[in-house]
């Protein structure tokens, strides 16, 4: 679905005469692959290049060096731009910036309408997408009155209605309360599992990545760790070097282990923790 080879990107700032004032290397030789149907989480401290990578996948930005393929399409081929954008849908942090209509179902229908989808099919897609994110009963409501989590689910339905093969979510829960965060993550997981949509979830909440098939950790424009959630969270000290937290329960288990309790590495949930502790007796 996604393959990058030594993808490098520099933000170049120029003065009025066009002379280069500064260069910021935001992506430094990033090589990743994401298979169709995968759920991949991307973690990294602020400024590590996550949003820049997301914008590359949607061809909002194109590589300075190296290549990026989205469903086999090279993002540097301008004539594929619309195909690429239709293949990879984007969901951003702030749901208020993504909702444009005054009625939920019209908002969700806006994307397919723009793509020239026939009216009857638009309504079918709107209904299906709203059901998929659990917002069908709100179809005639005004988005303004919804909670943050509900708005973000409507934004996700709007992307789903365009039938992308892949969806890239750039910190979709950063502005939400814990309930909203849970709703959105549950929705994204279900889209992945039931509809087979490839998911790239960028987040800095560790708890949101434990269900991913794979985790990619970025630091300073580079991919510094890759593996299953358990492989990644088994390396608490290394994660801390990259200024990352680990899930609270993982940290507790790690500290207890350091203090001499024979617990396994990479405990991801309270259930696993309880089981491991009970097994000690
Ligand atoms: P993240 O999403 O992980 O916080 P970003 O991709 O936003 O990281 O930023 C990566 C690096 O690129 C940072 O050093 C940031 O300052 C720089 N950067 C981001 N956007 C711009 C821009 N429009 N112009 C110049 N530098 C930028
Ligand atoms: Mg960002």
What's a quick, concise take on this entry?
The protein is α/β, with parallel strands linked by helices and 281 residues long.
Word description of this protein:
- By secondary structure, the protein is of the alpha/beta class.
- It has a six-stranded mixed sheet with strand order 6-7-8-3-9-10, sandwiched between helices. Strands 2-1-4-5 form a four-stranded antiparallel sheet, covered by helices on one side.
- The longest helix has 18 residues.
- The radius of gyration is 20 Å and the shape is globular.
- The N and C termini lie far apart (47 Å).
- Magnesium ion binds next to helix 1.
Task: Identify the notable features of this structure and list them briefly.
24% strand, six-stranded mixed sheet, binds magnesium ion, globular, 281 residues, four-stranded antiparallel sheet
Provide the fold topology:
Layout: E1 2-14, E2 20-34, E3 39-44, H1 50-57, E4 65-70, E5 73-74, H2 81-87, E6 88-91, H3 104-114, H4 119-132, H5 148-160, E7 166-170, H6 178-195, E8 198-202, E9 214-219, E10 222-227, H7 229-233, H8 236-241, H9 248-258, H10 270-278
Parallel strand pairs: 3-8, 3-9, 6-7, 7-8
Antiparallel strand pairs: 1-2, 1-4, 4-5, 9-10
Helix pairs in contact: 3-4, 3-5, 4-5, 5-6
Bound molecules: adenosine-5'-diphosphate and magnesium ion.
Residues 11, 24, 26, 44, 46-52 line the site of adenosine-5'-diphosphate (ADP).
Sheet-strand content, in percent, reads 15-25%
Count of helices? 10
What is the residue-mean pLDDT, rounded to a whole number? 93
Work out the oligomeric state of the chains in this entry.
single chain
Bound molecules: adenosine-5'-diphosphate, magnesium ion
Strand order of the largest sheet: 6-7-8-3-9-10
Radius of gyration: 20 Å
Poorly predicted runs of 5 or more residues: none
Strand-and-helix sequence, N→C? Answer: EEEHEEHEHHHEHEEEHHHH
